[in-house]
Amino acid sequence: MIRLIMIAMLALAGMMSAASKTAKSPTAKPLTWSDLLVRPRPVPQATLSYGDDPYQKVDLWLPAGDGPFPVVVMVHGGCWTTRIADRTLMNWVADDLRKAGYAVWNIDYRGVDRPGGGYPGTFADTAAAADLLVAKAAEYRLDTKRIVAIGHSAGGHLALWLAARPRLPRVSPLWRATPLPIARVISLGGLPDLEATAASPDNGCGTEVVGKLVGSGRPDPYADTSLPRLLPIGVPTDLVNGRQDRIIPYRLATGYIAKARAKGDAVTLHTVPATGHVDLVAPETAAWAEAKRLIAAAYR
Prior knowledge:
Shape: globular
CATH topology: Rossmann fold
Radius of gyration: 18 Å
Strand content: 15-25%
Oligomer: single chain
Number of domains: 1
Largest sheet: 8 strands, mixed
CATH architecture: 3-Layer(aba) Sandwich
Structural class: alpha/beta
Strand order of the largest sheet: 1-2-4-3-5-6-7-8
Number of helices: 9
Distance between the termini: 45 Å
C-alpha cells in the first residue's frame, strides 16, 4: 500500500502546475517532487534528539546574529508515513526562513509505518519535539513569547493539532498540562479533518492511512486526533492551498474552514492560482512567498 501511495504521489505531482509570481515564463514546466529533491540540500546548524528512535529528531536552523530569534515550528508531510518523507523535505524552505532572520525548529516523528508510530506515537512524538523547544530556548537564544507553527500536507494537520493541544480531553493519553503555546498556524495544503480525509478516496494519501494514524479500539478515535473535534482551538489560522493541487482536494480546505468558522475560530483561506502541492514547499514559488508574508505578519 505504501509503495502504491508513493507512486500515486509522484504521478499526481507531475501533473501539478508550478506557475508562480516569480516564474520567468508562463510555459515553465510543472514542479514535481523530483524537481525539488535533486536540488543541493542545505543543512541545519544542529540536530537534537527527544527519544532513541532515529526519527525522534529536531533540526534547528539558526539565522546570523545574537538573537533572541523568532521561532517557526515546522512539520513535514508525507501522509504521516516515514517512507514517503521525513523532515529533510523541508530543508529548502527552512533555509529560506533562516536567511530571512527566523530560527526554524524543524521536527520529525515516527510515521504510521514505523514501530511506535500511529496512535498515540506519531502524535506523542510531534508533541515531545515541540515541547523540547522550551528546554532548549535559552541555550540557542530562541524567543518563545510568540511561536508560529507551519506544516505541509499531513504536517499541516499536525501543526494545527499542536495548536489545539490545550483542547485535548483530559482522559486522552496525549493530554499535557503545559503544552508549547502556539500563537498562529499556517497550513500548506493540509489535511486538518481526518474524518473527511478518510471519506475522500481521491486524496493522494489514500484512506487506509487515516485508520493507522488514529488507531482503533477506542469509542471515538477522532476525539483527540482530528481538528474539527477540538474546535474552537482559539488560534488564528491561515490555510494556503494551491488551486491546482491534485494531491489534496481543495474541498478539504473549504470544508474545514466552514466548520472552524461555525465554532468561532478566525480562519483564512489563501488560494494560490496555478499552483500544485509541491509548489507549497519550494522557496521560489508564489505559494511560499505567501507563506512567508503570513509569517512576517504574525510577528509584527
